[in-house]
Design brief:
The protein is 28% helix and 31% strand. The protein has 153 residues and is α+β, with helices and mostly antiparallel strands.
Length: 153
């Protein structure tokens, strides 16, 4: 079925549908992406307010190579002790045989027995600590914690 010549000519000459539709789609897409971005930032901000970063306070902070006990206190942002967390000691630039773990008591203190060693011609090194927060808590351990410095006598 063919359209009469006068009607077909009008459609060919009318370019509004071709111009208007893509522009409207682009505007809707830009507005939608901007709205989604704002909503995602709001949601991540709510999640960020609900968690507390943990840190460690080892005692002593400076040791010499050889076996010794170290108390590691796990604290929150305000310095409050965290009980039930697991402290994991691993060799940094000082060497350990494997890893050592201990759980914090009600005062937030975990006692570890470490035997750090330094390599030949190595003047100092570190033992690093990671913290596994108590299950179901608002605590996280994403940043590097305070380490123990091992120095040669």
């Amino acid at each position: 079925m063919r359209l009469p010549r006068s009607t077909a000519g009008r459609f060919v000459a009318d370019e509004r549908a071709i111009e208007g539709l893509p522009i409207r789609l682009v505007i809707a897409l830009v507005v939608g992406v901007a709205s989604l971005s704002v909503m995602m930032n709001m949601l991540s901000g709510v999640n960020g307010l609900a968690v507390v970063e943990l840190d460690t306070k080892p005692t002593p902070e400076v040791i010499t190579p050889g076996e010794r006990g170290i108390d590691v206190r796990v604290i929150g942002l305000e310095g409050d002790p965290v009980s039930g967390a697991t402290v994991v000691a691993r060799g940094g630039s000082a060497r350990l045989d494997g890893i050592e773990t201990a759980r914090t008591d009600e005062n937030g203190v975990a006692t570890l027995t470490l035997d750090p060693r330094l390599g030949p011609n190595q003047a100092d090194g570190t033992v690093a600590f990671d913290v596994k927060p108590p299950a179901g808590s608002q605590y996280v351990d994403r940043r590097e914690n305070t380490a123990v410095l091992v120095v040669r006598e």
